[in-house]
Amino acid sequence: MNDDLPLADGAQARPYLSLRAPQPHYLRIRDQLVTDLARDLLPADSQLPAERELAERFACTRVTLRQALQLLESDGLIYRQNRRGWYVSPPRIRYDPTRISGFMEYVTAQGRTPRTECLQAQRGPAGAWLAKRMGLDHPEQQVFHLQRRRWVDQRPVLLEYNVLVAEWCPELLGQDLSTSLTQLLRERFGHVQSRSALLMHPETLDEKQAAQLQASPGSNGFYLERLSFGEQGQPVEFDREFWRPDALAVVLETQGAPL
Amino acid sequence: MNDDLPLADGAQARPYLSLRAPQPHYLRIRDQLVTDLARDLLPADSQLPAERELAERFACTRVTLRQALQLLESDGLIYRQNRRGWYVSPPRIRYDPTRISGFMEYVTAQGRTPRTECLQAQRGPAGAWLAKRMGLDHPEQQVFHLQRRRWVDQRPVLLEYNVLVAEWCPELLGQDLSTSLTQLLRERFGHVQSRSALLMHPETLDEKQAAQLQASPGSNGFYLERLSFGEQGQPVEFDREFWRPDALAVVLETQGAPL
DNA sequence: AAGTGGTCTAGACCACTTG
DNA sequence: AAGTGGTCTAGACCACTTC
Fold first, then answer.
1. Which residues contact A219 (CB under 8 A, 6 or more apart)?
2. pLDDT, tens digit (0-9, with 9 covering 90-100), for A193-216
3. Which of A252, B46, B58, B245 could join B222 in a cystine, given CB atoms 3.0 to 4.6 angstroms apart?
4. Confidence of residue A255 (pLDDT cuts 50, 70, 90)
């Protein structure tokens, strides 16, 4: 037989099949990328080389390379900016949703730079869905709808939708909503939520949300919602937060709740 | 020009380009699948048709189809069993990690059938890493290492690693560890944790974990860890939980923590 | 204008599950 | 034994960002 025949059959040309470990190629590429990232000590938010360059380096197609990159993305080691490329993830922001402390405060406390951008603020009726969800008396009850985007170190990490009962915090729209809402409620209205119910789970961002977070359509996200009650136990605020999943670690301390 | 020329160029042959909506094809397939799933009222845990069949139905390749399926997977609507196929996700288990209530109890309370399988149970020194992580006095301190797999309705949803200070619950290995550890500690040892610190975030399952949960390598997971303290404030237990991300919704109630 | 990531095709082989 | 999902190749075009 002619040894010089080109490897027409892909099977023998696949490098990973000749190696001892029976791992898929994209897992080996991921591991290599992890060690490369660690060795080069790439700073947070720095950009990775182009996909075509990486694919050439690992002798694979872009499809396979992207499979490896998506693993690192799910693990929170790198993130994507839509159509811009891949970047090294900074450490997760540690967020305790049970604490009466606003985004601006706990991000600053971790040595990072927070920014809040108010995308929308309006007053209107709650509507049937929200009234039921919040446990309001009637759907015509007036509420404020806020939509805000929050940044950490030049990167959008969170979309936040707040619904606040209007009579609980009148004149809210005259305030500066690009600051801490927690602080505003405390200092302007003297309010401290006495109780809240939280729910959170992973899910995908919808297309609009992904665009607003400069993420790719269909990106993973982390969803957190909070229903807060006022001093008399009445529902006063309903929040929904959509996070970049690599940007966040939820932490909390429990005081031994007796049965 | 000859109108009968075959469409050699893929551009004009791609169906999604001729549609009004500028959405990528895989997003349209996802939407179609969502409505199909809703219309057919497929029961939880039932299997979807084969990928090749779905790809033919949507006139796309398997690559594109799988992109759509992976979106539904991230959203928690369907899940995968490695090499077996795609299945409809049942409702998420609601889990309050601040409550003193075990897996067996809260799964049952939600009308589902829990099962706990003890994969490993041994006694040994904590080791340097764990001792530091738990705040133990010295790394030689004896602890129990448990590794358990938990099921809901015939499906493995959770891997749990428990580390318990041995002197806090002696003779633990003589007990039935395929039941509720919470209950065991309470009834056998009279223990109720007085305080705990939690941390959670999305990440990927490693290969062994994925295999144990019958998931595909590199699947998304949800990580939750808990460091619990005993009656005198001493560290007594360190848990790490790796969940199938579609199986879980974390819920909790906060009593207005004053500053 | 050049280059990038996003999307897609049309195949292929293999390991594994199912019957 | 047949069929499935898991993995991979070698291209391609487009929309968008960057320069």
1. A80, A204, A205, A210, A213, A244
2. 779 999 999 999 999 999 999 999
3. B245
4. confident
Residue with tokens 């920014």: A115
Q: Are A71 and B245 an interchain contact pair (Cβ–Cβ within 8 Å)?
A: no
- Architecture label for domain B93-250: 3-Layer(aba) Sandwich (3.40)
CATH entry 1.10.3720.10 includes domain B10-88: no
**Residue written as token pair 């949300």:** A209
A61 CA, D11 C1': Å apart: 10
Which CA-bearing residue is nearest the C1' of C14?
A11
Tell me the two tokens of residue A114: 């927070």
Closest alpha carbon within chain A to B75: A203
pTM of the entire structure?
Answer: 0.90
Contacts of B197 in chain A (CB under 8 A): 251-254
Q: How many Cα atoms within 13 Å fall on the side-chain side of residue B232? A: 2
The 3-state DSSP class for residue A51 equals helix
Beta bridge partners of A150: A116, A158
The secondary structure of residue B143, as a DSSP letter, is E
Beta strand ranges found along chain A (DSSP E): 78-81, 85-88, 93-95, 114-125, 142-152, 155-165, 195-204, 220-229, 235-243, 248-255
Where in chain A are all domains bearing CATH 1.10.10.10? 10-88
What is the edge-to-edge ordering of all strands in the sheet holding A114-125?
Answer: A114-125, A142-152, A155-165, A235-243, A220-229, A195-204, B248-255, B93-95
> Start-end ranges of CATH 3.40.1410.10 in chain A?
93-250
Q: Which residue is nearest to nucleotide C3 (CA to C1')?
A: A50
Which helix (H) or strand (E) element contains residue B237?
strand B235-243
Best mutation target among B73, B89, B201, B219 (most A Cβ atoms within 10 Å) is B201
Using an 8 Å Cβ cutoff, are B51 and B29 in contact?
no
The sign of the torsion formed by the CA atoms of A23, A27, A29, A33 equals negative
pLDDT higher than 70, residue A169: yes
| Secondary structure (DSSP) of A163-232 | EEEGGGSTTGGGS-TTS-HHHHHHHHH-----EEEEEEEEEE--HHHHHHTTPPTT-EEEEEEEEEE-TT
CB of B52 lies under 7 Å from some atom of strand D: yes
Tokens 């997971």 correspond to B221
The continuous run of DSSP H or E covering A52 comes out as: helix A51-57
* Residue B179: φ, ψ to 5°: -120, -155
If you count them, how many residues does chain A have?
Answer: 259
Least confident of A10-24, B5-19, B209-223: B5-19
The integer distance in angstroms from the CA atom of A102 to the C1' atom of D13 is 46
Task: Please write the tens of the pLDDT for every residue from A150-164.
Answer: 999 999 999 999 999
**A69 to chain B, minimum CA–CA distance in Å?**
11
Contact A98 B203 (CB under 8 A): no
Q: Which nucleotide is nearest to A10 (CA to C1')?
A: D9
